[in-house]
Amino acid sequence: MDYIIKETDIPRREIEAFINQTPSLSICADIANGTKHFGIDDKRNPRSGEDFRMREYVTVSGEKVGLGLLITLENGNQMKVIDLAKECIEQWVAFLSSHLPKSL
Q: Tens digits of per-residue pLDDT, 58-103?
């Protein structure tokens, strides 16, 4: 978000509103802030409104072993972090594409 604010003319208020209205981006922002500040405390309420947990998981297929991260939301729904990342990219592409100058 900081790069978008600094490198575009899109108002910060509009960017913040977009993040807050987009569940995947809100969760991603909470992960980033929680990692940066070693958790989200009472001063920084989570954007997503979710109390979620992340844990590692292992997949085994034949001789291949994989490792990933899984998010479990308060309501019990789960998502792979890689899927969250893909969704966030899609959301940012759509948002930024809608702000391209008409001359392009």
A: 888 889 988 888 888 888 888 999 999 999 999 999 999 999 876 6
The Cα 50–Cα 55 span in angstroms is 16
CA–CA separation, 27 vs 15, rounded Å? Answer: 15
- Let me know the angle formed at the C-alpha of 97 by 92 and 98, rounded to the nearest 5 degrees: 105
One-letter amino acid for residue 44 of the chain: R
Q: What is the CA radius of gyration of the chain?
A: 16
The dihedrals phi and psi of 58, each to the nearest 5 degrees, come to -120, 140
Cross-strand bridge partners of residue 65 = 60
Q: Do 54 and 70 touch, CB atoms closer than 8 A?
A: yes
